[in-house]
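Quick question, first post here. What does this chain look like in 3D?
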Amino acid sequence: MINHDIRKIIGEMMDHKELLRVLEVRFMKNMHRHKNTEWNTIMDLLNEEILKTIKKMEETGGEPDFVMLNNELIFVDFSKESPKGRRSLCYDKTARVNRKKFPPLSSAMEMAKDINIELLDETMYFSLQKIEPFDLKTSSWVKTNIEVRDLKGALFANNRYERVFVYHNGADSYYKDRGFRGFIRLK
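> Answer (accepted):
Ran it through. Tokens below.
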């Protein structure tokens, strides 16, 4: 496993050609995620903006890979644990700004916007866990509906005991082992 600091340095040096090589190797190694798809098909869907986003996903430890989910073509974080470069964050800017003590530097929603990705929702999280298990030691914020946010809460999920759990917490909470997973649509 590559150390996060080394991954960041590599990411800064990585041009699109190198990124595409990393993505192709990951794609080929994990064909169970996309059984009926050819790499050349994916290459045809990538453009400069999508590659910039995927590069940021990679730099923050997401290990993005392609999958077809709910009839959508997406690149999504498949790192075994919540991406290291996206942990210790509260849910959103409102929660971060209103936190009375020790606010984190950012939030999941703010960082997702900076990276140009969307947080997984509960349905996506459950669907991806059927492809392969992740968040066995960490947890990830998931997109939370407005009714829960209005009550100052937010949802997060993980996989324990070979089962996926969705929990609630104050949106202003943050923990060293809680981050977020995201995705970008290809079409």
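The chain has two domains: 4-77, 85-179.
The longest helix spans residues 16-29.
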